[in-house]
Design brief:
The chain is α/β, with parallel strands linked by helices. Helix content is 40%, strand content 17%. The chain has twelve helices and eight strands. The chain has an eight-stranded mixed β-sheet, with helices on both faces. β7, α10 and β8 form a beta-alpha-beta unit. The longest helix has 15 residues. It is globular, with a radius of gyration of 17 Å. The mean pLDDT is 95.
């Protein structure tokens, strides 16, 4: 199956990949893993799970080890009451790498995954060879205050018991808002994908955990400013922004935290890059990961 083909529903991972549950940092992380060679860790964000990376895994599996976890609280990972600040979730990721015997890895990150990825790179720079950051800001960094004042970002502060009651049984309605408003063409996030992810987010505790990812932003901003005070990252960074969403702002954000940044705007694309432009996204990431310098 070509990694360039559109399929209804979630694009499948290579058959050689397996799933594991790794106990680490006080939680259980569901991980898809397979292949041999330099490791690539793929971190998803809100509105998807690690299932979003099937295209990219298929393109890299022949000469890379693929590690695609579900973030704490999301997908098939466990849903603890706390620990959703991104510095702590970085410890989840490092624990997964330790359990798999992986010393260094490239990071490919989207949405909330960018925030976890930055915390991994900032706390363990010797373990990150290069970093792909796709279409999201970093709390406390660069234009963050401007972003948080945008009324469209109301979901940053949406959470708590009453919000959980409002969304319970209506997870699909809440998620459709993200899939629709953050797409260039909402039909690209097809019905089968929506049903797949809505079912995962309807699991007990999943929406609470999803809200908690956003409600931790104030702590993340504090942590990120502390990371920045220690100096910028030195590994190569590829920053990708969807033309209809974060666009050139992704490059501006990444240059606040890293010295070696290349940025690309993906045309005719919104936030959901692996659903909207899988071929273009896959080629950019694969080419970047295969570079030797």
């Amino acid at each position: 199956m070509s990694e360039h083909a559109h399929v209804d529903g979630v694009y499948p991972f290579p058959a050689v990949m397996q799933t594991r549950t790794i106990e680490t940092n006080g939680t259980s992380i569901h991980v898809r893993v397979g292949g041999h060679g330099p490791a690539v860790v793929m971190l998803h964000g809100f509105g998807t799970t690690g299932d979003m990376w099937g295209h990219l895994a298929s393109a890299l599996i022949e000469d890379h080890m693929i590690v695609a976890p579900d973030l704490r609280g999301l997908g098939l990972s466990s849903k603890p009451d706390g620990g959703y600040d991104k510095k702590n979730q970085a410890a989840d990721v490092v624990g997964v790498l330790d359990a798999l015997g992986v010393r260094t890895a490239a990071l490919v990150t989207h949405d909330i995954g960018i925030m976890v990825g930055f915390a991994v790179a900032a706390t363990h720079p010797e373990r990150v060879s290069r970093w792909v950051a796709i279409d999201a800001p970093l709390p406390g960094v660069g234009p963050w205050d401007q972003i948080t004042q945008d009324p469209a970002m109301w979901h940053f502060g949406f959470g708590g018991q009453d919000m959980e009651r409002l969304v319970a049984g209506r997870e699909r309605i809440y998620l459709d808002r993200f899939w629709n408003e953050l797409s260039r063409d909402q039909k690209r996030f097809d019905e089968a994908k929506r049903q797949h992810y809505a079912a995962l987010y309807a699991q007990p505790g999943a929406m609470r955990a999803g809200f908690a990812q956003f409600l931790a932003f104030s702590q993340d901003a504090t942590d990120n400013r502390t990371f920045l005070a220690q100096g910028k990252l030195q590994m190569p960074v590829l920053a990708l922004g969807g033309e209809a969403t974060f666009g050139p702002m992704i490059g501006a954000v990444m240059r606040c935290v890293a010295d070696n940044v290349e940025d690309v705007i993906i045309p005719d694309c919104g936030h959901w890059i692996t659903e909207e432009q899988p071929a273009a996204t896959t080629k950019l990431v694969v080419d970047f990961l295969h570079r030797r310098s």
